[in-house]
From TrEMBL:
<dbReference type="InterPro" id="IPR009057">
    <property type="entry name" value="Homeodomain-like_sf"/>
</dbReference>
<keyword id="KW-0804">Transcription</keyword>
<protein>
    <submittedName>
        <fullName>Transcriptional regulator ArgR</fullName>
    </submittedName>
</protein>
<keyword id="KW-0805">Transcription regulation</keyword>
<dbReference type="InterPro" id="IPR020449">
    <property type="entry name" value="Tscrpt_reg_AraC-type_HTH"/>
</dbReference>
<feature type="region of interest" description="Disordered">
    <location>
        <begin position="305"/>
        <end position="327"/>
    </location>
</feature>
<dbReference type="Pfam" id="PF12833">
    <property type="entry name" value="HTH_18"/>
</dbReference>
<dbReference type="InterPro" id="IPR029062">
    <property type="entry name" value="Class_I_gatase-like"/>
</dbReference>
<dbReference type="InterPro" id="IPR018062">
    <property type="entry name" value="HTH_AraC-typ_CS"/>
</dbReference>
<keyword id="KW-0238">DNA-binding</keyword>
<dbReference type="InterPro" id="IPR018060">
    <property type="entry name" value="HTH_AraC"/>
</dbReference>
<feature type="domain" description="HTH araC/xylS-type">
    <location>
        <begin position="212"/>
        <end position="310"/>
    </location>
</feature>
Length: 327
């Protein structure tokens, strides 16, 4: 029986954990099942720069890529780019019938090539706004992983293992996937459609039902914030009781928690999208630019414009010290 060659195409700064999760699932499957003949091949999308320290294992992709039946693009930074020769080789691979996938930020180079247009792709919640703005033709989801026809994607972290278990299940049956899961001491096999964020009660450190309901309402009403009285009415408690619950479990009043939620959402949008500051302020429930800037500065210690410029300037300095970037 011929082994199935699975290629892992690695970009610089790929974390060892991302690769190890996928490789370990295949290794255990080979040991447990005589027909699970997977031959993983590790390839470098770019030549590592001298002096960058320790590098992940891998050989240049030339001469190896075309031998793979499946290829996963693997990156952990959203800035991953595709050189023209590699872009041509990946498109040729797809035309030849090979399936392609992406782990973590590997969705970025795959989307740049147009190979995700019209497909569902699992995008890590940290990159949702940025990815959606850059690649509107891709159906970005907040699921753990997606398997849409011949395109596979996992949002990152432990979802990489979930996707590989799904591959094992489809290739060799659920029994093998279960055996590998048990070997790796995975509590349960998660479905791809499960959401990425941990349950709200775990994030809050509390299972108080009224608190959970109130915070869910806040998260669902960022652009047009509800008043504390409206929230209390929706969760069927008095305003005073709601304030006591927030004080007891979160050590702040509902309006303060709501404001922090909106400001953190605004900061995420500032760093991930090209929307104007006034657009971001309005979409996060602030009535005007000055109102947004004042609240932002009081909470973060800098104005939205200063924060965006500082963070983008820092990123540009790391990528190319000689190049400056406008905020």
């Amino acid at each position: 029986m011929t082994a199935q060659r699975i290629g892992f195409l690695l970009w610089p700064q790929t974390r060892a954990l991302t690769l190890a999760l996928a490789e370990e699932a295949l290794r255990v499957a080979r040991r447990l099942h005589p027909e699970a003949l997977y031959d993983p091949v590790f390839m470098l999308a770019e030549t590592p720069a001298e002096g960058d320290g320790w590098h992940l294992p891998g050989k240049p992709w030339q001469g190896l890529l075309e031998q793979c039946q499946r290829v996963f693009l693997v990156a952990d930074e959203a800035s991953a780019q595709v050189a023209p020769p590699l872009a041509a080789a990946l498109k040729q691979l797809v035309r030849g019938g090979s399936s392609v996938g992406a782990l973590s930020a590997g969705i970025y180079p795959l989307a740049q090539l147009g190979l995700l247009d019209g497909y569902r792709a699992a995008v890590h919640w940290r990159w949702q706004d940025d990815f959606t703005e850059r690649y509107p033709k891709v159906i970005a989801t907040n699921h753990l992983f997606e398997w849409d026809r011949d395109r596979l994607s996992a949002c990152g972290g432990m979802a990489v293992l979930d996707l590989l278990l799904a591959v094992l299940s489809r290739d060799h049956g659920a029994e093998l996937a279960g055996a590998v899961s048990e070997e790796l001491v995975v509590e349960r096999i998660r479905e791809g459609s499960e959401r990425q964020r941990i349950p709200l009660k775990n994030r809050l450190g509390s299972s108080h039902p009224k608190l959970t309901q109130a915070v869910l309402l806040m998260e669902a009403n960022i652009e047009e914030p509800l008043t504390t009285d409206e929230i209390a009415q929706h969760v069927c408690v008095s305003r005073r009781q709601l304030e006591r619950i927030f004080k007891q479990y979160l050590n702040r009043v509902p309006s303060q928690y709501y404001l922090e939620l909106r400001l953190n959402r605004a900061r995420q949008m500032l760093m991930q999208t090209s929307k104007s500051i006034i657009q971001i302020g309005l979409s996060c429930g602030f009535s005007s630019g000055p109102h947004f800037s004042s609240a932002y500065r009081n909470f973060f210690g800098v104005t939205p414009r200063e924060d965006r410029n500082q963070r983008r300037g820092h990123g540009a300095a790391e990528a190319a010290p000689a190049v400056s970037e406008r905020g």
